[in-house]
Amino acid sequence: AVHDMKNSLFLLIQSIENLAGELPSDNVEAREQVANVHYEASRLNTNLVQILSLYRSELESLPITVDECFIADLIDDVVGSNRLYVEQKKIGITIQVDSELSWYLDSELIYLLINDVLVNALRYGTSKIIISASVQNAHLNIKVEDDGAGYPPSMLEKSHESLSEFQLSQGRTGLGLFFARLIAAAHSQGENSGEISLSNGGDLGGSVFEVKIP
Protein backbone atom coordinates (compact mmCIF):
# COMPACT_ATOMS: atom_id res chain seq x y z
CA ALA A 1 0.00 0.00 0.00
CA VAL A 2 2.83 2.38 0.84
CA HIS A 3 4.56 1.70 -2.49
CA ASP A 4 1.26 2.29 -4.32
CA MET A 5 0.99 5.66 -2.57
CA LYS A 6 4.56 6.55 -3.54
CA ASN A 7 3.91 5.61 -7.17
CA SER A 8 0.69 7.63 -7.24
CA LEU A 9 2.45 10.66 -5.77
CA PHE A 10 5.28 10.33 -8.30
CA LEU A 11 2.78 10.27 -11.18
CA LEU A 12 0.94 13.25 -9.68
CA ILE A 13 4.16 15.26 -9.40
CA GLN A 14 5.06 14.38 -13.01
CA SER A 15 1.62 15.49 -14.20
CA ILE A 16 1.97 18.79 -12.34
CA GLU A 17 5.36 19.40 -13.99
CA ASN A 18 3.92 18.61 -17.43
CA LEU A 19 1.03 20.99 -16.79
CA ALA A 20 3.42 23.74 -15.74
CA GLY A 21 5.35 23.30 -18.98
CA GLU A 22 2.18 23.88 -21.02
CA LEU A 23 1.10 27.05 -19.22
CA PRO A 24 1.91 30.34 -20.99
CA SER A 25 4.62 32.34 -19.22
CA ASP A 26 2.36 35.39 -18.90
CA ASN A 27 -0.27 33.47 -16.91
CA VAL A 28 1.40 34.32 -13.61
CA GLU A 29 -1.48 33.42 -11.32
CA ALA A 30 -1.97 29.94 -12.80
CA ARG A 31 1.77 29.22 -12.74
CA GLU A 32 1.94 30.28 -9.10
CA GLN A 33 -0.95 27.99 -8.17
CA VAL A 34 0.64 25.05 -10.00
CA ALA A 35 3.97 25.72 -8.25
CA ASN A 36 2.22 25.69 -4.87
CA VAL A 37 0.48 22.38 -5.66
CA HIS A 38 3.83 20.94 -6.77
CA TYR A 39 5.40 22.06 -3.49
CA GLU A 40 2.66 20.44 -1.39
CA ALA A 41 2.82 17.17 -3.35
CA SER A 42 6.61 17.05 -2.98
CA ARG A 43 6.36 17.75 0.73
CA LEU A 44 3.79 14.98 1.14
CA ASN A 45 6.09 12.60 -0.71
CA THR A 46 8.99 13.55 1.56
CA ASN A 47 6.90 12.99 4.68
CA LEU A 48 5.79 9.59 3.43
CA VAL A 49 9.38 8.49 2.82
CA GLN A 50 10.42 9.80 6.23
CA ILE A 51 7.69 7.92 8.07
CA LEU A 52 8.40 4.72 6.12
CA SER A 53 12.11 4.97 6.93
CA LEU A 54 11.39 5.57 10.62
CA TYR A 55 9.16 2.51 10.66
CA ARG A 56 11.88 0.40 9.05
CA SER A 57 14.56 1.70 11.39
CA GLU A 58 12.41 1.22 14.51
CA LEU A 59 13.71 4.63 15.65
CA GLU A 60 17.22 3.25 16.15
CA SER A 61 19.20 2.79 12.94
CA LEU A 62 18.72 3.13 9.22
CA PRO A 63 19.99 0.62 6.64
CA ILE A 64 21.97 2.36 3.90
CA THR A 65 23.49 1.52 0.51
CA VAL A 66 26.82 3.28 0.06
CA ASP A 67 28.37 4.02 -3.33
CA GLU A 68 30.50 6.73 -4.91
CA CYS A 69 28.49 9.88 -5.59
CA PHE A 70 29.46 13.08 -7.40
CA ILE A 71 28.15 15.79 -5.09
CA ALA A 72 27.64 18.50 -7.73
CA ASP A 73 25.39 16.16 -9.73
CA LEU A 74 23.42 15.27 -6.61
CA ILE A 75 22.82 18.91 -5.71
CA ASP A 76 21.90 19.77 -9.31
CA ASP A 77 19.27 17.01 -9.18
CA VAL A 78 17.82 18.37 -5.93
CA VAL A 79 17.63 21.93 -7.26
CA GLY A 80 16.18 20.73 -10.57
CA SER A 81 13.38 18.82 -8.85
CA ASN A 82 12.32 22.07 -7.15
CA ARG A 83 12.56 24.22 -10.29
CA LEU A 84 8.89 25.23 -10.25
CA TYR A 85 9.01 26.39 -6.65
CA VAL A 86 12.33 28.20 -7.21
CA GLU A 87 10.85 30.12 -10.15
CA GLN A 88 7.66 30.95 -8.29
CA LYS A 89 9.56 32.25 -5.23
CA LYS A 90 12.04 34.14 -7.47
CA ILE A 91 14.97 33.02 -5.32
CA GLY A 92 18.50 32.91 -6.68
CA ILE A 93 20.43 29.74 -5.83
CA THR A 94 24.23 29.73 -5.86
CA ILE A 95 25.93 26.33 -5.92
CA GLN A 96 29.54 26.23 -4.72
CA VAL A 97 30.76 22.68 -5.37
CA ASP A 98 33.79 21.36 -7.25
CA SER A 99 32.50 19.29 -10.18
CA GLU A 100 35.06 16.57 -9.39
CA LEU A 101 34.13 16.24 -5.71
CA SER A 102 32.88 12.74 -4.94
CA TRP A 103 32.13 10.85 -1.72
CA TYR A 104 30.95 7.43 -0.65
CA LEU A 105 27.42 7.72 0.73
CA ASP A 106 23.80 6.66 0.23
CA SER A 107 22.83 9.09 -2.54
CA GLU A 108 19.08 8.46 -2.21
CA LEU A 109 19.02 9.26 1.50
CA ILE A 110 21.31 12.29 1.21
CA TYR A 111 19.13 13.50 -1.68
CA LEU A 112 16.06 13.34 0.60
CA LEU A 113 17.91 15.15 3.37
CA ILE A 114 19.18 18.00 1.18
CA ASN A 115 15.82 18.25 -0.60
CA ASP A 116 13.97 18.75 2.68
CA VAL A 117 16.47 21.40 3.79
CA LEU A 118 16.27 23.20 0.43
CA VAL A 119 12.46 23.25 0.47
CA ASN A 120 12.54 24.86 3.92
CA ALA A 121 15.12 27.40 2.72
CA LEU A 122 12.89 28.23 -0.26
CA ARG A 123 9.90 28.61 2.01
CA TYR A 124 11.56 30.87 4.59
CA GLY A 125 14.30 32.55 2.57
CA THR A 126 13.86 35.97 0.98
CA SER A 127 15.87 36.11 -2.24
CA LYS A 128 19.11 34.12 -1.96
CA ILE A 129 20.26 30.59 -1.12
CA ILE A 130 23.81 29.21 -1.13
CA ILE A 131 24.47 25.45 -1.32
CA SER A 132 28.12 24.54 -0.81
CA ALA A 133 30.11 21.35 -0.32
CA SER A 134 33.74 20.72 0.57
CA VAL A 135 35.97 18.26 2.41
CA GLN A 136 37.13 19.34 5.87
CA ASN A 137 38.87 17.18 8.48
CA ALA A 138 38.16 13.97 6.52
CA HIS A 139 34.44 14.77 6.40
CA LEU A 140 32.20 15.84 3.53
CA ASN A 141 30.50 19.08 4.59
CA ILE A 142 27.32 20.08 2.77
CA LYS A 143 25.89 23.44 3.80
CA VAL A 144 22.61 25.17 2.89
CA GLU A 145 22.26 28.87 3.78
CA ASP A 146 19.42 31.34 3.20
CA ASP A 147 18.74 35.03 3.81
CA GLY A 148 15.55 34.58 5.85
CA ALA A 149 14.90 35.31 9.52
CA GLY A 150 16.87 32.26 10.69
CA TYR A 151 15.88 29.29 12.82
CA PRO A 152 13.70 30.00 15.87
CA PRO A 153 15.29 29.20 19.28
CA SER A 154 12.99 26.19 19.78
CA MET A 155 14.27 24.57 16.58
CA LEU A 156 17.90 25.22 17.49
CA GLU A 157 17.26 23.49 20.83
CA LYS A 158 15.65 20.46 19.15
CA SER A 159 18.69 20.03 16.93
CA HIS A 160 20.76 19.12 20.00
CA GLU A 161 18.40 16.40 21.26
CA SER A 162 19.62 12.81 21.11
CA LEU A 163 17.80 10.33 18.90
CA SER A 164 16.41 8.59 21.98
CA GLU A 165 14.82 11.85 23.20
CA PHE A 166 12.82 12.31 20.01
CA GLN A 167 9.03 12.21 20.29
CA LEU A 168 6.66 11.85 17.34
CA SER A 169 4.41 14.44 19.01
CA GLN A 170 6.96 17.10 18.07
CA GLY A 171 5.29 17.30 14.67
CA ARG A 172 6.67 17.75 11.17
CA THR A 173 9.54 20.05 12.14
CA GLY A 174 10.75 17.57 14.73
CA LEU A 175 10.29 14.69 12.30
CA GLY A 176 12.36 16.42 9.63
CA LEU A 177 15.17 17.12 12.10
CA PHE A 178 15.12 13.58 13.45
CA PHE A 179 15.14 12.12 9.95
CA ALA A 180 18.12 14.30 8.98
CA ARG A 181 20.03 13.18 12.08
CA LEU A 182 19.09 9.55 11.44
CA ILE A 183 20.44 9.73 7.87
CA ALA A 184 23.65 11.47 8.96
CA ALA A 185 24.27 9.05 11.85
CA ALA A 186 23.75 6.03 9.57
CA HIS A 187 26.87 7.09 7.66
CA SER A 188 29.84 6.01 9.76
CA GLN A 189 33.55 5.22 9.44
CA GLY A 190 34.96 3.41 12.46
CA GLU A 191 33.97 5.42 15.52
CA ASN A 192 33.04 8.49 13.47
CA SER A 193 29.38 9.03 12.57
CA GLY A 194 27.76 11.70 10.46
CA GLU A 195 26.08 14.64 12.16
CA ILE A 196 24.01 17.72 11.43
CA SER A 197 24.14 21.22 12.87
CA LEU A 198 21.78 24.19 12.75
CA SER A 199 22.80 27.80 13.29
CA ASN A 200 21.96 31.34 12.28
CA GLY A 201 24.17 33.85 10.48
CA GLY A 202 26.49 32.52 7.80
CA ASP A 203 27.22 34.45 4.61
CA LEU A 204 23.57 35.44 4.07
CA GLY A 205 22.53 36.21 7.64
CA GLY A 206 19.72 33.65 7.81
CA SER A 207 19.51 29.96 8.68
CA VAL A 208 22.50 27.67 8.15
CA PHE A 209 22.07 23.89 7.91
CA GLU A 210 25.16 21.70 7.76
CA VAL A 211 25.58 17.94 7.43
CA LYS A 212 28.97 16.27 7.92
CA ILE A 213 29.59 12.80 6.49
CA PRO A 214 32.79 10.87 7.43
SSE arrangement:
Blueprint: H1 2-22, H2 28-57, E1 67-70, H3 71-81, H4 83-89, E2 92-96, E3 102-105, H5 107-124, E4 128-136, E5 139-146, H6 153-158, H7 171-186, E6 188-189, E7 192-193, E8 195-201, E9 206-213
Parallel strand pairs: 2-4
Antiparallel strand pairs: 1-3, 4-5, 5-9, 6-7, 8-9
Helix pairs in contact: 1-2, 2-4, 2-7, 3-5, 5-7
CATH class: Alpha Beta
Q: Give me the number of helical elements.
A: 7
- What count of structural domains? 1
Mean pLDDT: 83
Give the spatial strand order of the biggest sheet. Answer: 2-4-5-9-8
> What fraction strand?
15-25%
pLDDT below 50 for ≥5 consecutive residues: which ranges?
167-172
Shape designation: globular
Keywords: ATP-binding, Nucleotide-binding, Phosphoprotein
Domain Histidine kinase: 1-214
GO molecular function, one term: ATP binding
Protein name: histidine kinase
Defining traits:
7 helices, Heat Shock Protein 90, alpha+beta, Sig_transdc_His_kin-like_C, two-stranded antiparallel sheet, His_kinase_dom, 23% strand, histidine kinase, 9 strands, five-stranded mixed sheet, HATPase_dom, nucleotide-binding, 214 residues
